Structures are given as C-alpha cells and as structure tokens.
Amino acid sequence: MRRTRGTAAVLGTVAGALLLSGCGAEDLPLAGVRLGADGVPHALIRPCGDDGYQSPSLDGRPGAAEGGPVTTGWDVRKEKLSGDAEFPLFSPPAGWKARHRGEQRLLPKHEYTLAFGHYITGDSYNGIVEFSTEQIAALKPGQVWADDKAMSLGEFEKLAEDSC
Asked: Is 56 helix (H, G, I), strand (E, B) or coil?
C-alpha cells in the first residue's frame, strides 16, 4: 500500500512537470519586416485567419558581440487586436497606444525581435521575426525579411498562410 502511494506521487509529479513544460506557445514565421518605397522599414503582422492577438512588441539591443539590455523599440499591452497589420516599424497604429523606449530608428549593430502572441489553451503561438539592422538595410525593393532570410512579399504571405 505504501509503495502504491509513493509510485502514484512520483507519477503525479512527473506528469505535472511534463504538462507544465509542454504547454509553451509555438513560434511561427507570422511577422516580417520590409522596406517601404521611401526606405522606411515596415512591420508586417499576419495572425492565422481571424485569430485575435495581443502584446505586439519590438525589442532592439546591441548585437551579440556587444551584449546588453534592450535599448530601443516599443511594446503594446492591448489584448484584443485582430487582422493583418502593416505599419512603419517604429510607429505602431495610434490606437494601440504603444509605449516607446530609446531612439525610434534602426541603430547600427543592433539585433531586433518583432513579435506578437495568440494565447488560447492548446492553440497558442507567437508570430516572431528576428533581424539585424544590416539585414534590413540589405533588402532589395519588394523583399521581406522573415524566417531568417530575405524573400518576396508573395513568398512571405504564403509562408505565413502555410504556417497556420
């Protein structure tokens, strides 16, 4: 009897740990960055279908060689956003009431993360893109940086759609 309780306790602990560690949101290539015709970088956000999303943000920090904290970007605390979005990278829609920090431009030798989240039990994901100032500066007209590479806008739209 004592052995059964001990075994049940161990199994319960293991099951609980597995359950807690296995519930993370999946990172999907649903965000991208492109240069506008005027050379200004634009954020692209593509949630799956009609999914709502929350907490879009842009974090910029000195490159891996320099290390250090976030020095530029913005974050939004809204939770009920919906639909595709495209806007200048450092000027999210006014209705989002973004909180800005640091200089609002691409800084040399900085690495950035643009992200948003969709969190529903069993169907959670993050739309995310990571990039450097140099990678965005190297984009050709019509290209988007997403999924760690440059691609056409059409390829990005297909990648986002297929990722859902």
From this structure: strand
